């Protein structure tokens, strides 16, 4: 079974509008972390936002916010006031397990966002 | 500034040759580094976990004799693609987990093209 599911291969949004990128996850571990990364055409992975499974509040970082619905196992990324520079590939990822153990991330298939002027 | 560097950023080689990719942790010591591979328009897939001073742990389906990993110091891990073939052409990217569970830093990646 897929651990991270991103159902939107591509999304369009008008400049200055908000957009929500969907992400659902599957884990039986009570302790996990959820990440969102932006990958422009250059290939670099740009960290956007993190949500821990025990965090009580939804994470926010500037124009990025994470709509964390634990019972539904969803962690949607909301980008407010879209800019042309937001056009990129966006990946949702998860790390399972507690503490500082070094564990890799599992990635979703990604969503390509295109911001239109 | 960059936390993780990779070298080279791009490499073109002939089929049958070996290519070494370096991943350096610039800001902190990393006992563990991760190597991912990304095919065009696809997601990142974990290839292996590189452990300082010990053998790497490879994911299922990844040939350890083809993708040699050496993690000889706390700041450097290398991935060597041996006897590269065109199907090995891909984007290889390494990552390091920082001090906090919320951090995972990625290198800028290496684009490998095997002719």
Overall pLDDT of chain A: 94
Count of β-strands of chain A: 12
Low-confidence stretches of chain A: none
Beta-strand content estimate of chain A: over 45%
Shape estimate of chain B: globular
Mean pLDDT of chain B: 92
Count of DSSP helices of chain B? 0
Q: Kindly state the percentage of residues in helix of chain B.
A: under 10%
Largest interchain contact:
A-B, 24 and 26 residues
Oligomer: heterodimer
Uncertain segments of chain B: none
At a glance:
The complex is a heterodimer of chains A (117) and B (115). Chain A has 117 residues and is mainly β. Helices cover 0% and strands 50% of the residues of chain A.
Describe this structure in words.
Chain A is mainly β and 117 residues long. Chain A has strands at 4-5, 10-14, 19-21, 24-25, 32-39, 46-52, 60-61, 64-69, 74-79, 88-96, 106-107, 111-116. In chain A, strands 2, 5, 6, 10, 11 and 12 form a six-stranded mixed beta sheet that branches. In chain A, strands 3-9-8-7 form a four-stranded antiparallel beta sheet, with no helix packed on it. Chain A is globular, with a radius of gyration of 14 Å. The model of chain A has no long low-confidence stretch (mean pLDDT 94). With 115 residues, chain B is mainly β. Chain B has strands spanning 4-7, 10-13, 19-25, 32-38, 44-51, 57-58, 67-73, 76-81, 90-96, 105-106, 110-114. In chain B, the strands form two sheets. In chain B, strands 2, 4, 5, 6, 9, 10 and 11 form a seven-stranded mixed beta sheet that branches. The mean pLDDT of chain B is 92.
Strands, helices and their partners?
The complex is a heterodimer of chains A (117) and B (115).
Chain A: E1 4-5, E2 10-14, E3 19-21, E4 24-25, E5 32-39, E6 46-52, E7 60-61, E8 64-69, E9 74-79, E10 88-96, E11 106-107, E12 111-116
Parallel strand pairs in A: 2-12
Antiparallel strand pairs in A: 1-4, 3-9, 5-6, 5-10, 7-8, 8-9, 10-11, 10-12
Chain B: E1 4-7, E2 10-13, E3 19-25, E4 32-38, E5 44-51, E6 57-58, E7 67-73, E8 76-81, E9 90-96, E10 105-106, E11 110-114
Parallel strand pairs in B: 2-11
Antiparallel strand pairs in B: 1-3, 3-8, 4-5, 4-9, 5-6, 7-8, 9-10, 9-11
């Amino acid at each position: 079974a897929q651990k991270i599911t991103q159902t939107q291969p591509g999304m369009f949004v008008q400049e200055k509008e908000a957009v929500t990128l969907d992400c659902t996850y599957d884990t039986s571990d009570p302790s996990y972390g959820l990440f969102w990364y932006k990958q422009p055409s250059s290939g670099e992975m740009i960290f956007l936002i993190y949500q821990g499974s025990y965090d009580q509040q939804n994470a926010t970082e500037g124009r990025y916010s994470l709509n964390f619905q634990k019972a539904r196992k969803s962690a949607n990324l909301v980008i407010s006031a879209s800019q042309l520079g937001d056009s990129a590939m966006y990946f949702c990822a998860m790390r399972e397990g507690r503490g500082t153990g070094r564990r890799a991330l599992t990635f979703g298939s990604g969503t390509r966002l295109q911001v239109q002027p | 500034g960059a936390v993780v560097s990779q070298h080279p950023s791009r490499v073109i080689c002939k089929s049958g040759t070996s290519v070494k990719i370096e991943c350096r942790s610039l800001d902190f010591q990393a006992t563990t580094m991760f190597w991912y591979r990304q095919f065009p328009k696809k997601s990142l897939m974990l290839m292996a976990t590189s452990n300082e001073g010990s053998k790497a742990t490879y994911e299922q389906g990844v040939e350890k004799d083809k993708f040699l990993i050496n993690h000889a110091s706390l700041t450097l891990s290398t991935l060597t693609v041996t006897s590269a073939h065109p199907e090995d052409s891909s984007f290889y990217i390494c990552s390091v987990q920082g001090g906090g569970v919320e951090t995972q830093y990625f290198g800028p990646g290496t684009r490998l093209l095997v002719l």
